Here is the input.
Amino acid sequence: MALTEILPGLVTVIPLISSIIIPIAGMINRLYSWHIVVAATFACFLISLFLLNSVLNYGTISYWFGGWQPPWGIEYVIDSFSGFVLVIMSFISFMIAISAGEYVKKQVGEERMVLFYTLYMLLVTGALGIVTTGDMFNLYIFLEIASLSGYALVAIGKKRAALVASYNYLILGTIGAVLVLLAIGFLYMVTGTLNMADLNTRLADLYHSRVVLVAFALFIIGFSIKFALFPLHAWLLGAHSEAPSVISSILAAVVLKVSAYAMIRVMFSVFSVEFSFDILPSAEILLALSSIAIIVGAVQTLAQTTLKRMLAYSSIGQMGYIVLGVALANQIALTGSLIHILNHAIMKGALFLIAGSIIYKTGIYNLSELKGLGKKMPLSMAAFTICGLSMIGVPLTAGFVSKWYIAVGSLDAGMWYFVPVLLISSLIGAVYFGRVIHNVYFAQEPEHERHKGQNTDIKTFKSKIRDEAPIGMLIPTLILAGLCIFFGIAASIPVSIAEKAANMLLMGGM
Amino acid sequence: MDIIQSAAPIYAIIVSLIAVAFIGISRRHPNVREFCTIAASVIKFSIVASMLPAILDGKVIEYTLLTVVPGLDISFKVDALGIFFALMASFLWIITSFYSIGYVRSLNEHAQTRYFICFALSLSSVLGIAFSANLFTLFIFYEALTLVTYPLVIHKQTPEAARKAKIYLTYLLGTSIAFQLSAIFITYYISGTLDFSNNGILSGTGSDALLIVIFILFMAGITKAAMMPLHAWLPAAMVAPTPVSALLHAVAVVKAGVFTVLKIVLHVFGIDLLSQLGIGTVFPYIAAFTIITASIIALTQDNLKLRLAYSTVSQLSYVILGATLLSQSAIIGSIMHMVLHAFGKITLFFTAGAIYVAAHKTKVSELNGIGRQMPFTMAAFTIGALSMIGIPPVGGFISKWYIGIGSIEAGQLIILAVIAVSTILNAWYFMPIVYAAFFKEPESEHHATPPTPHGGVGSESKIHEAPAFMVIPLLITAIGTLILFFAPSVFLDLAKMVVAAATGVN
Here is the structure.
């Protein structure tokens, strides 16, 4: 299995090297930069699939960078949890990369294309690195690679507001990163190691040390900022709505998720389940915060008037689901949580891409202007409808499966009161997505536009005819929307993997 | 009990889904498109009917389509209750399809293709509900039915239609997600299964208080049954074209609601468990309250369709009343009422639509003398009204008879009085219409239609019926209402089988 052994390294090395090649290739032809991104993310996806397959069949894979033995060298570990997340993240990065081609050309501009793809590649490097590494300090480095390129990519948006959003994101993101770095420093201070597995064994004797307790708290807060857990979500709205849509998509689908991954990893693998939930009351705090996030996030989503802000805000509630499942800390709920990492990545990734297609084609941002788009962009809007139904959690879509598991998990934990929380959020989701879907298909166009004669206003005329997004943007959204249905029907495929991962995490495995 | 493994239920469901594709393709050729609808409805009915002999033999047809995750299957089971509902809905779809053609063409409606597509989709959902083998499958089709009927309710796309459609969606989707789904979660959690069973699946699984809470959650979550105070969506849905009101909001959607109630009563809780919980002494009164109140509201409505809608609210609660009385005859009556009310009420809605198409009248107060202009239509209306009131020899009598007997069996004589009062109220709000139509003089302003040489006996009463596409269907359903009184055997046998299975096995 010599090849398998170096593959965990390749997952991060390929995008990293690509990000160096891109500026060079971009000097020859700007379009090459896009080709490289698509090829690199596709390669990462294939490798991830292969890794996941061998993890499921032969068990955990570990790779020592440069042959240095852990705990001294940097170790990369692929187990069922990281394999599962890795496949999702690399797949979504691939899909978004395809979609970016047309979008970036028009919305970002040719002159900044090479810069854009270089940063995109770095962001992917960071995201995939977080998932593969088995070393705490290495995790911090990847977290920062992903975040820094994220800040820059948000700032690339055309409006001035993008700069403000990026600045907010930068400040809060850096605070989060500093807290994580401090926590890592504390752990290194008391244990003298940075390797996760090693930390896990050495920390077992130190669970009552103040330093360790503080380190744990810093980790939770730091990561919570990164994945926008209520009330640390202030940066998210601006960053996700002002960034170019493909970037909103990857921020929501990938960057948020890998930060959540890092927190889960720290809670279950670096520390132990007993420490995280029995010695410390972190479950109570996280349960409370996540249920508030779910409800408040949903309510605030209702108040948004532009499509991208609506999608951005709904992420807060959706991340709440993931944290809720984690904090319930039983097999069923944690499975639901892991499934939701997959489902939300697919749904929100697709929704932001569709928002991008709408902006690309019509320049519409406001929810109220979406009227009649069902006729104009039927396929995109069909995909939007499917993803919206999945976000609401309608049965036979992916969203239902994760809600089902989290709900049954909360009953299993004897905490029935989270079921109403889930259902209320579904209901509010039905209101805000229902409103959009209604507008798109059934709302009449404003009177003055309908009664205009045939000869006037080219915009009115255009809105009647079919004018779909370019094929390169359409295909990824259709694939993702198809997956919303596929994973809602054939849910046993991801569920069986997530169950394995949840089981491993609860057993305290690595 | 023999179990047959067969995909027939799937075929019955899928027929109209396939038809959707054909309807979509042939959207430029209305005749071909309508042929697809008719063909699909006939094939669907034939498939359902082909399953009938096996069911009457006491067999059950089962089929599992797929497993989403362990514990959540999409599977189908055709039993007596299911085939009862499916037969009724698929037969009436054929009739309604003809009627729809007449209606949308006479009025030159817009978005006709969307209309026929949604109609076909809703029939798939209805059969899905009828044949579902577990709560999960039922819930999926229940929600699907709401979603696919939404475009039909908002059909006119006016601000008013949009507002009403919002009420429709809010009530149906909101309560089913908030209450029905939570009930399903809890049911799964305490019993470990969602499969329907003749003895119920909940006995001995939780404390009485919890079980009562689950039952209330279910009842609050099945808003399609339009029990007060969650009935407001049904009058709102009257903004839809009349064939939609006829098939969906007198038959398919609302009957899906009471069908689900019956499923919950018989196959999730079981009669024994519910009587032990004391449901039989409380819920009939809530239903009785709805019966009386809705009838009184119906009295005050001048809009014909709204009056029919409130009458439907009232009549639906007969089914709930019968089901929750928990005595054998009452349940038979309750099941029978599904089909008898369906035939009667669809006739009434058909006539309302015919009056609108032929005379452009929507108000009860405008109907003076309309019987001379539209004798066939109003004769059918009279039969439908008699069935609502429950006078022999019209079908509606049979279910009232059984429910009445059932209330005596259950020792609830007050309920018997409620049925009597309701009968009077029904007569009160239907008979004046019949009287006005046949015996009152038309108002003078209707001289607009000039008398012709062939005018007939009366001065201005020329016979002016709706197109044959509309009149023949409504005559068929009116005659059906009569036939069901004299020959209810198939349906009655099925109803008795349902009750025998639910009580006899214990």
About this structure: The CA atoms of residues 100 and 243 of chain B lie 6 Å apart. Chain B touches chain A through 29 residues (CB under 8 Å). The two ends of chain B are 14 Å apart (CA to CA).
